[in-house]
Amino acid sequence: xxxxxxxxxxxxxxxxxxxxxxxxxxxxxxxxxxxxxxxxxxxxxxxxxxxxxxxxxxxxxxxxxxxxxxxxxxxxxxxxxxxxxxxxxxxxxxxxxxxxxxxxxxxxxxxxxxxxxxxxxxxxxxxxxxxxxxxxxxxxxxxxxxxxxxxxxxxxxxxxxxxxxxxxxxxxxxxxxxxxxxxxxxxxxxxxxxxxxxxxxxxxxxxxxxxxxxxxxxxxxxxxxxxxxxxxxxxxxxxxxxxxxxxxxxxxxxxxxxxxxxxxxxxxxxxxxxxxxxxxxxxxxxxxxxxxxxxxxxxxxxxxxxxxxxxxxxxxxxxxxxxxxxxxxxxxxxxxxxxxxxxxxxxxxxxxxxxxxxxxxxxxxxxxxxxxxxxxxxxxxxxxxxxxxxxxxxxxxxxxxxxxxxxxxxxxxxxxxxxxxxxxxxxxxxxxxxxxx
Length: 437
What we know:
It is a single chain. The chain is an all-alpha fold. It has 19 helices and no strands. Helix 4 packs across helix 10, helix 9 (171-194) runs parallel beside helix 17 (375-385) and helix 15 (335-350) runs parallel beside helix 17. The protein is globular. GO terms for molecular function: gluconate transmembrane transporter activity.
């Protein structure tokens, strides 16, 4: 009965947005309240769950998306994105640019959270698309597939790192296996799959599209790459520093503060104000006026993501994830497949990859403790399952849809299918490794 109620709620959400044309934020709130009532949540807890879901979602993403929009606008308007695009295009050519995007996404995806990588790379994707008249979805999917896989499969991202600890797995071995599985999954879901998406119409957000500048007006290659990728460098540096140098407890706390995504984006934005603005003859008032204008363009995205947080919280507090896990736990199948399946179904119902991974881990833990599955491979199997079939209850779905300005149908056909390919390819890689080792 729970599965049917969830399906009906999600179907109603899609219909409200696609056919009734209600704004997604309003539709999310209506369906969140309806779902809470149907799932038997006490009335005095419903508004609290909705508000908590919105607050939790915005607390982690508001600074990131708004500062990321300002940062992206500055990178685009200064010509830095155009310079980076020209360098990449000179190295690969138009026919192979999707491979270059995949490699860039994989490299920056290892240290960066998915949301940071997304808002950081959007100006670069759009600059390539507009300058060389390429398909936005065809260029973007390979990079976003790489970001998604690293987020779901590989430590030091939150869910796989927590699973390593919970299962008593080996961090280094899990990372090694993860690379072996992640690379083929990214290639299949990225450059290969994206070839079928070239005809999908897309008009990306105008805030991140700047008019072409003459070459002599562009910032230098080093300045462009360093300014645009400073968030990556900061996160890598703060991760490696305690591994190389001895730091006390206070030092670790300082590094934790510096490496938080909000602080990293803030520092990077202020540096870009100088390197791409003030030092190139622009006044501070001009820089801020242009940058802040980009926040207006992403406000609808922020509202939609906040609404998705309300629905996710209702599903979580109503015990949907635990009920689904209990229903699936008794299935007689290969433990690695079972872990993947539990994570995938919770992901489809709840929408959060992290919630799906951590919930599935608690359910599958007894099988690990009894030695029925390799803990390193189980981390990867659950991680792959937690990425399956992203749709309307996932904030990543709406980030992609709104930034690339796609229809619901085209978002399902591109983003949702790509995430599902990643999940299935990841499971296939885990099972293959399980035969070999």
